[in-house]
Amino acid sequence: MSRLRVALVDYGAGNLVSIGQALEVVGAEVRLVRDGDELRAAEALVVPGVGAAAPAMARLAERGLVEPIRRWIEDRRPYLGICLGLQLLFEESDEDGARTFGVLPGRTVELVNAPTLPHIGWNQVVRRREHPLFAGIAPAADFYFVHSYAGRPAPGADTVALADTVHGEAFVSAIARGPLLGVQFHPERSGRDGLRLIANFAALARDDALEAA
Amino acid sequence: MLRRRVIPCLDVSDGRVVKGTRFVDLTDEGDPPELAERYAAEGADEIVFLDIGAAPEGRGTLLEIVERTARRAFIPLTVGGGVRSVEEMRDVLRAGADKVSLNTAAVADPDLVARCATRFGRQAVVVAIDARRLVPASGGPGRADAAGDPARRSRPGGADPAWEVLVRGGREVTGLDAVAWAERAVALGAGELLVTSIDRDGTQAGFDTALLRAISSRVRVPVIASGGAAGPADFVAAIVEGGADAVLAASIFHRRLHSIAAVKAAMAAAGLSVRLAPAGGA
User: Fold this and answer.
1) Which residue of A110, A144, A203, B227 is 20 to 30 Å from A172, comparing CA positions?
2) Does A52 sit within 8 Å of B121, measured CB to CB?
3) How far apart are CA B273 and CA B135, in angstroms?
């Protein structure tokens, strides 16, 4: 079986080594993508990133990546957003008022009731429903988080929510809508279960099984 | 519920893990990537990697070792030592670190904390504070015992305890009050504080829980306790008495005096939320 060609978006927002390594460990072929043309040969897109939305969108714009990523999502191709890569799917971020991709109704909000902020550490990801992204993973497994904001689906749009996590308040920690997947935690830093989730994503993308998921 | 973290610390000098007592008398404890991988398999929640040779000699961080370490342990890695600029922080993150800890450079150039937080997000910026308890000028019953009970030592004269910040690996006094500096560092953009008691570091006399409480009660960001762990009960005290969110230790793990699992079992028995399933090394 040929290796899944994964485009890993490099826009200077944090650690790409660990997610790149994790994708390679599960058998994917990783290419760092710094401009829109480089997306063409890819079969799956991973958008990582930590930090604020406005500088991230600005750097994506500088590299001509905003429209290609938007088209990728509209074409219903496999997308995994991690942390900021999930938040960018919503319409707007409260952190700095940045307009983001807006493919999911809702906004990115601060965890105002959190006892400590940023929310840093391992926390339980409690699933609302079964999904093959979490195949082989316990229904309330621990994953590693590093963030202060989280995407909040608009009222009536929370059918995309796949899992929740509590830190002072409950927030959506994983979403799925067909081939569009996002996790607020860092699977590439979450040990064995994290690698399992990345492997599940790679298998679903390779088998073109996400529309049915 | 957010788990309380247990974090083995790898103090690195010249490419080897070392550990001293009160920042001196360094002894060789092993290969950094090898130890990181072992700890990940044993259930470490995170790894902190401090290039303690970097600040005194003015050397840059050893990116190659960071990269080798990050490739072997799929748990979070914080790296500190010798980072003085946004560009250097970028290089460390690109080598595979998730967070960078600033210490000497943050005191020398507090705006560096703000610049790094703006560029990479505050969650990637840890400010490390090496604090030493100030002994009041007036005499008192506790003064003679420098490594003894801090609560006893601080009370003469009835004044609140206070701690000063040291930099350059504990070699240079700054005159900064540790609690005030902690609050300022958070205001500047620190997303986490790594608080080390220099009095306790390497002594296995227990964490300075008064120092931890003084800081954790004044900031909202997570506080990582460091310096003085001897056994599982100290980890519990750092959290319950000190208000720490995470606990860091080096020698007791390197020398296999206590396992990470034993520490976590004690924390769980004390009613603290911990991640009991190991992450696996992979």
Assistant:
1) A203
2) yes
3) 36
